[in-house]
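Help needed: design a sequence for this.
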């Protein structure tokens, strides 16, 4: 039985902005026994297309989905788990948590210090620029969400300031192919969780600066600054009515450029060893991230220069309903590749780097699920 608090693909229906497209190309949209078969394999699904894709999979797979069922608590029992919800109680020997890692926007406590005259939103609230008041917009966070919103809102005619912290720079295409083709072909997507030296850090990495567009556009900080977006340092605090930004912007740029070039080196080495150089073209290197001529360190919030703040500062899971002591002090589930060792019969899927680097992407679900099902079956029949 699959419990869903709303409709199938509910978060895609209710918690995404209007223009969002998948970051992964259509040819990479695949689930067990089901994949994209349309006429645009190199395109990127709109939200309506994602909803249709997932809804059709539920039908084809004959998934036993119980919709409009909100789980209110899960408790451990002698023979399994007691699941309480809006549709009544369920007893089960095994339970898989497929609620993901992006249930709640992770917003700094400083949000409470914003002047009441400013509109304060998270990406879960934002739909399109028309809902914003006239005037400037401060976007805090420059991962995939932050750069996409900065680009869209700047195009709407509003001045945009983007506060940049740690980020992962990545070109949309490299040597004639989509960068995610390289991630898959070179084996990086399939790197296992037990092969990574610092797994905790790998699971907390920001999402790469990518956007899915018909033009296969690279959306990096150079593109944004060319378009007129003002780049400032990492948001640090609000003090005396002023937003304060760090002065380490150039260091953030240099680190992101360094990591991108190391990734491209990995692609190049794979192509050389596999004899694929003739197929994929010559190696490329991209212009370093350009620092602004000057970067302000503070912004007077009541000056009228900005009217809206959007907190693109990431997300966190919500386990407030899980009455089993398997969550750490930061709100993250303690697990070993999706197996919750402290609670036999409890599993998780869809979390960052659960078992492989691709775990949070649609095409990453199948391999992880097969591994966990093997473990689950062994537990049930032991």
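Sure. Designed sequence:
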């Amino acid at each position: 039985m699959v419990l869903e608090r709303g409709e199938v693909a509910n978060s895609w229906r209710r918690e995404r902005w209007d223009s969002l497209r998948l970051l992964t190309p259509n040819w990479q949209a695949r689930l067990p026994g089901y994949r994209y078969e349309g006429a645009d394999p190199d395109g990127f699904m709109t939200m309506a297309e994602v909803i249709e894709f997932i809804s059709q999979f539920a039908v084809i797979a004959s998934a036993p989905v119980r919709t409009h069922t909100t789980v209110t608590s899960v408790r451990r029992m002698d023979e399994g788990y007691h699941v309480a919800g809006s549709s009544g109680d369920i007893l089960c020997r095994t339970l898989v948590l497929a609620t993901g890692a992006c249930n709640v926007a992770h917003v700094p406590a400083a949000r409470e210090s914003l002047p009441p005259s400013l509109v304060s939103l998270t990406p879960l609230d934002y739909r399109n620029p028309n809902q914003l008041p006239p005037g400037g917009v401060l976007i805090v966070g420059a991962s995939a969400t932050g750069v996409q919103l900065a680009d869209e809102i700047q195009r709407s005619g509003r001045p945009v300031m983007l506060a940049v912290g740690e980020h992962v720079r990545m070109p949309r295409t490299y040597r004639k192919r989509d960068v995610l083709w390289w991630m898959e072909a070179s084996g990086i997507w399939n790197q296992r969780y037990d092969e990574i030296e610092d797994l905790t850090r790998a699971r907390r990495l920001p999402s790469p600066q990518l956007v899915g567009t018909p033009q296969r556009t690279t959306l990096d900080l150079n593109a944004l600054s060319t378009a007129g977006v003002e780049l400032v340092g990492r948001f640090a605090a609000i003090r005396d009515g002023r937003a304060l930004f760090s002065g380490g912007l150039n260091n953030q740029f240099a680190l992101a450029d360094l990591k991108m070039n190391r990734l491209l080196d990995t692609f190049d080495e794979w192509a050389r060893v596999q004899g694929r150089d003739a197929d994929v073209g010559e190696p490329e290197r991209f212009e370093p991230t350009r620092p602004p001529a000057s970067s302000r360190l503070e912004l007077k919030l009541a000056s009228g220069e900005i009217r809206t703040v959007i907190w693109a500062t990431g997300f966190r899971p919500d386990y407030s309903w899980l009455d089993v002591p398997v969550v750490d002090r930061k709100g993250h589930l303690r697990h070993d590749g999706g197996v919750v060792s402290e609670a036999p019969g409890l599993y998780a899927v869809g979390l960052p780097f659960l078992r492989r680097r691709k775990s949070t992407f649609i095409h990453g679900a199948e391999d992880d699920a097969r591994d966990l099902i093997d473990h689950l079956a062994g537990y049930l029949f032991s």
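The CA atoms of residues 34 and 57 lie 7 Å apart.
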